Structure formats: structure tokens, C-alpha cells
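<purpose> Linking amino acid order to shape
<body> The protein record starts here
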Amino acid sequence: MSASDALQSFTGKYQAQWPELSLLQGFLPERCRPLASAWGALLCELQDCAFAIEQEAVRTPKSLWWADELQRMASRQARHPLTIALQDEDAGYDRIAGPLLAVSAKVPLRAGNTEALHRQLLPLTAALAGTEAALFGGGNGHDSTVIAVQLLLMRLPGGLQAFDRAMVPMHLLARHQAMEAPTQKLSDDWLGELRALLPEQTAGNAYREAQRRFIRRRLSAMQSGKQPRLTPAYAWDAWRAVRRFR
């Protein structure tokens, strides 16, 4: 497999889960398009590594590999197609390594409420936001929260029946007595809390602002019991996000 094909296999997987990204590509400046594609896919891989693997014997070495890969990017010695595509940008990728290992070691995350869960994720999401700001410019205090909501949303809907209960806080699990079987009401309440956590103010750059708008629209669709699908409204979100930062 060529390097280009290898890269496409990972970016294509992410775009299948979040087709909004492929739509956003048409609105971003040309220089940002390959970065946005590779960065979105890398977030997906890191999320999957840190949160979606139940067996510690598998999760720990995989997290160590990714932490090493993030550190190798500083000296342009990356090996993965995604990190190779990103490593020429001086974006401080190594700052993500420590928080990634720390949160991976705590999985499955258990928090009493959504605020406590947000605090547990903050070291990782702040590091991701810092690197993202270096890639796309800007950055502000809202970016890490938007990233937190995105990481949590990535665990839905399948994660509700997984070993970590999609990281749903204990107060919701207790309210719905759902330690054994998730209910639709539990899902709806959790989506509502994620929507409340998502900042209403703009994020710090066009890429993250577009994601904020996409996440809000996806949450609304899921709360309405609909499968998220691309509509012209997503194009409007992308255009407004990019226009905001011109």
C-alpha cells in the first residue's frame, strides 16, 4: 500500500463517521485542507485508543505507542500515516503524550456528574486544543470544552452498552437504574447534558468553530431520535464558521 493510500484509509474512516468534515473541506483555505483531514482522523484514533479498548493489556501498550509517536513528531521521526502527514507543522504534538497516558490509565472513567467528568478530561482536551490552535490559529478557553464534548459524543450510541457505559456520569446511571441495560431516556438525558456543556460562544478558529456547530446539530438530531445525516444546514454551518475567521 502506498503512503497516499495508507493515509486515505485513516482519513476515510474518520470521514465515514463524521462526513461533516468532508463537507468542511470545500470551505477551508486550501493549505488547511490536508491538515484538517489528518488532524480529525488523528483525534479519532486517539479517542479510540484511550477510551474504547476495554482490556488494559491492550489499551496500555497502544497508548504508550501513540504517546511515543506524538513525541517523535517533534524530531520528524513519525511512523504512522497520520502523524507523518502532520509532523512538518510545529504544533507541539508532544504536549498530548502525557495527558493521553494519564487518562488512558484511568479508563473506565467514573465521575459523579458531568462537571467532574469534564475536569477529568481537561488535561487531555486542553493539550489537544493547544495543538489544534497551533495548526489552525486562534484558540480560546472554549476550545477544550468543545473537544471534550466531541470525544464524549464519539462514544455514542454504541458505548452505552460497552464496558465504560460511554463515560456517562454516575448521577445519570443511578437516576435511571441503568447499570445493566441503558434506556432511551438515559441516552436523551446524557445528550441533553452534553448539549448544555457545549459552549454557545464561538470557538477559537474556523476548524473548531465548525466542529462546535456540527456537534450542536448532531446532538439535536440524536435528541430527536434521528440518525445524523448531511443536510444543507451543515454547509451553512461550515460557511459561517470559516467566514467568522476570515
